[in-house]
Amino acid sequence: MSLEDIVSLAKRRGFIYPSSEIYGGLAGVYDYGPLGVQLKHNIQNLWWSSFVSAWDDMYPIDAAILMNQKVWEASGHVDTFADPLVECSNCHARFREDELKTKDKCPNCGKEHTFGEPVQFNMMFKVELGPTWGSSEADEGNYLTADIQVKDKKGQVVSSFKIKENERHNSLTIYDKNSRTYLRPETAQGMFANFKNILDTVQPDLPFGLAQIGKAFRNEISPRDFLFRLREMEQMEIEYFVHPDEWEEAFEQWRVGMTTFFKKVGLPANMVHELEVPEADRAHYSKRTIDFEFDFPFGTKELAGLAYRTDYDLKNHQEKSGKDLQYRPKDGSAPFLPHVIEPSFGVERLVLAVLCASYSIEPVRLDDPTVTLDDESVTAAGRIVLKLPADIAPVKVAVFPLLKNKPELVKKAREIYKMLKDELGEVMWDDNGNIGKRYRRQDEIGTPYCVTIDFDSLQNNDVTLRDRDTTKQERVKINELISKF
Ligand code: ATP
Fold first, then answer.
1. Is the CB of 451 inside a 6 Å radius of any atom of ligand 1?
2. Residue 148 in contact with residue 136, Cβ under 8 Å?
3. 381 with 470: CB under 8 angstroms?
4. Is the C-alpha dihedral spanning 395, 399, 405, 407 positive or negative?
5. Which CATH number fits domain 378-484: 3.40.190.10, 3.40.50.800, 3.40.50.1370, 3.40.50.150?
6. Which of these, 25, 306, 431, 437, could form a disulfide with 18 (CB 3.0-4.6 Å)?
């Protein structure tokens, strides 16, 4: 299986579409289609039930995407959330230096020795709140040059510089620095910034956690590999606050919890690897990090992270905001800043890993009566099946009347469809084409069961229940059907 197989299935069956595709798309941004939304929600619900509802000491937060710029200064993101950027002096294509195979030759234009020293490119998307002071835009194909002067309050020039001629420079905006903020590059800071609110309103005992699911944005230099490296993504993060002496125990508890969760979403244990991140590669805030890596078709890459962030964030926010963020034990002992363990999951990397792990091509048995060889989803090699765990499959069961032009069959099938839908919610109706094709369509989207209503059903009050993975079919009484799911 290649990444192209996954991209093509995701598009063809309405899981994932390129964003604004009718205008040529937008690099690093994707939209979820109907089945994708359901799959994503099911994964998020499983995360929520595993890590929020199941815990006594977990408090959910839904912080806004826009925050005061001071949050990002205090967190260190303004100064350090950057990747090394190099630009080809010939074609002006830009790359992340550490992702180039060689710096000797530009992969875009092929010219040699065109890269200079890297500059640190901050990956936060900048946002100006309210109206900007002035802007200039060049017409299509033209570009701007400018002589910029920095003046002090008395009007004296304190520095000046020229904007280098470059045909990519076609707009310039001048704004008030105080109106600057950023699209959040992680959900975590929304939890640290609310720490005092939680202490004051919930009055939790340590240890306790804050949990959040939400969008995050990173202006990645080279978005790539479908859902893997995006500019807009969703994260599911927990900040778990502990006494500084207890971080190791909590870290281990979360390591095990994350491993269990990967199993629940159907990732085989041999495809998930723990990488103890060496100090030199750790984020500025972390004293210990484990990256959970997954065997994606394009290589073994980070799926999720577990970091011990110490009291780095609370300490900085306390200092920069001037607010006391210390936890006060109810037994009256001395207040202190808790330390934090952060399990962080990227939703899209999980969705991609789940699709990759569940995608399989099963040999078609020629004696299987449900196979017709003209089915678009039965390739020369076999039938495509998404072996999703039932919990996260976007459709739990599909219901088929054997023939769509027999009102008595359709009526019975509609009754069964309604009964299942009331109970399970995610039930699909399909009366299009022969039964073999309908099975194949459901296999491809990972529906664990199909129910067919035929003429015998009218006599015997039973249906054919067909299993996605084994393709086995059994007759089941209608009043026993629900108990099968
Ligand atoms: P990478 O090293 O791959 O850039 P990271 O170490 O910067 O990732 P974190 O800051 O630890 O990532 O973010 C937590 C999680 O958010 C990651 O484990 C990943 O699942 C997800 N994530 C981070 N960046 C992206 C991205 N650009 N696109 C999709 N998911 C992402």
1. no
2. no
3. no
4. negative
5. 3.40.50.800
6. 25
Structure-block tokens of residue 431 = 């009366």
Atom of ligand 1 nearest to the CA of 220: 27
Nearest residue (by CA) to ligand 1, atom 8, is 302
pLDDT tens series, the chain, 485 aa: 899 999 999 999 999 999 999 999 999 999 999 999 999 999 999 999 999 999 999 999 999 999 999 999 999 999 999 999 999 989 888 898 988 889 999 999 999 999 989 999 999 999 999 877 777 888 988 898 889 899 999 999 999 988 878 878 888 888 888 889 999 999 999 999 999 999 999 999 999 999 999 999 999 999 999 999 999 999 999 999 999 999 999 999 999 999 999 999 999 999 999 999 999 988 878 899 999 999 999 999 999 999 999 999 999 999 999 999 999 999 999 999 999 999 999 999 999 999 999 999 987 766 566 655 555 555 556 789 999 999 999 999 999 999 999 999 999 999 999 999 999 999 999 999 889 889 999 999 999 999 999 999 999 999 999 999 999 999 999 999 999 99
Compute the distance between CA of residue 209 and CA of residue 194 in angstroms, rounded to an integer. Answer: 12
Q: Decide: 302 in ligand 1 pocket, CB within 6 A.
A: yes
